[in-house]
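Work Package 3 (structural annotation) set out to generate three-dimensional models for the target panel prioritized at the project kickoff. During this period the team completed the workflow that converts sequence records into discrete structure tokens, so that structures can be stored uniformly alongside our sequence database. As a representative example, we reproduce one entry of 276 residues exactly as it appears in the project archive.
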Amino acid sequence: MALLKLIKSSPVSARIGFVIIVANFLACLLAPVIAPYSETEIAGDVWETPNSNHIMGTDQLGRDMATRILYGARNTVSIALVITLFAFTIGITFGFLAAVLGGWFDQVFSRIVDVVMAFPTLIFALMVLSVMGTSIPVLIGVISILDSTRVYRLARALGMDIQVQEYVEVARMRGEGNWWVMRHEILPNAWPPLLAEFGMRFCFVFLFIAALSFLGLGIQPPLADWGGMVRENAGAITFGIFTPLWPASAIAILTIGVNLVVDWFLAATGEPLNGA
């Protein structure tokens, strides 16, 4: 209820962001139902311009672009969401443990994170994917681990700040254990910045997958992926055909939508954390 009241009081920009996000998730869920063709069906000639049969034209093989955009949302957005959830589960768990336990646990995991973060993320991912292959499970595992390092740093910093508060000291004096403190004291007071970070991390992962697909190491054909669709149809620009602009616009619009919501959420929950 509180979230609904917050949304109702949100500015127009945030509501536009919500509409964009909801539209993309509906496309993920309903792609097989609303798409006019199947994901890999050859439905026309190569690089047809928009017409009554293909409202966004066709791609380099004659597949319907509107269908590919819908299935691209289903593949790219769903995989990005799964990766972000995994990254946050790993990062928050180990970040809070490092803050609460301290000592050797904090030192070991913090130094491992420092080493991983010392490598440029794209180069590290390209190196690992080139060796281990580009299957979806490998893609999810690699990016989840890489992205969890950023979440770890934030969760550790928040945990270390919150655990010295008086209400946490009171909980420890009652005899509560570390796991209870993490779940009932640290997490509830850390969720606003973590939720905002979730939106930003989702955008990063989403763009990162698109970049990997553009380079040929992301989601592999014949699965539709917005980054891969830009790469596959890039040659159309030479002939004055703007087919690759459809997936590129889809990437930009979703990124803008998520950022609009994140900016509003940060402004709406920007008050200092407390133990209330």
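The CA atoms of residues 40 and 222 lie 7 Å apart.
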